[in-house]
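W.,

You were right to be curious about this one. When I first looked at the sequence I had no strong expectations either way, so I just let the prediction run and decided to look at it fresh. Below is the sequence, 310 residues in total, followed by the output.
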Amino acid sequence: MDLFALETFVAVAQERSFSRAALRLRRTQPAVSQTIAKLEAELGESLFERSARDGSLTDAGEVLRDYAHKLLNLRQEAADALGDLRSLHRGRLNLAANEYTCLSLLPVLDRFCRAHPLIKVAVQRSLASRIPDELLAHGVELGIISFRPDDPALESIVIFRDELAFVVNPQHSLASAESVSIRQLDGEHFVAHNVASPQRAKVLEAFQRHKTNLRIDVELPSLEAVRRFVEQGNGVALVPALTVERELASGALVRVPVRELRMERKLRLVYRKNAALSHAAMSFLQQVESYAAGSDNTYCYEVEKPGKLR
């Protein structure tokens, strides 16, 4: 019992005539009669009173008519829902990010939500190291991470360039320095984020290479806590510049360049290669590309080609 057969049945029931139903459906009368006969054989029931000239329905026909209307209405609802997805009048955008990388998305999310207010946006907080697996498990459609994934099943686009920033309280003795060397940081009381990352490994390696002691006295569970603790005058910190933009602008923190610690950090949007992305996800990628084209060098849209990892 397919929808085409039900559509033919409803037309005959409404027109009360096989010939008029054929005209409505733009088919021949024998084709309509054959479709109804096949439907009756499949159901094992007669649907029309053949002896009646007005095309009256049998009891089985009356029962089927109600269900046929419901099924045909559901088909139209499904078509309308798919149309809404294409026109972005409904849908959901699922992303995964961590505390830091989520900040880079905010300007683009603001533009996306204003353009498509009926799309529900859900940003799932995840450890960066777990996001590639979540993408491959179809837990989310898009992820944002600070390293290039090594799984060939994932595609990555560089969307943001950030730097590592050495920050201190305005009253700190180094706050007035134009720049410092890494050896001047020997013995400073560092406050650090307690989540391991490739960037942290690079910092440790840089201090070892310059034979400088990196003294980490306090480790906190979030970058916000690190910022606030240093702002209160408790030690110094190395944090992504993106995370302290407001504090630097207000003067609550001071950034002091460290000559040997100029580390660029690229943030990437990642998704499953060859995936059939939702209309919402495709639109979001277009928003990112458009935003990057109209901004400074901080935002970009660079699809990374397969090859040697950077």
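Here's what jumped out at me. The longest helix spans residues 59-86. And, maybe more interesting for your project: The chain has a mean pLDDT of 90.

Coffee later to discuss?

I.
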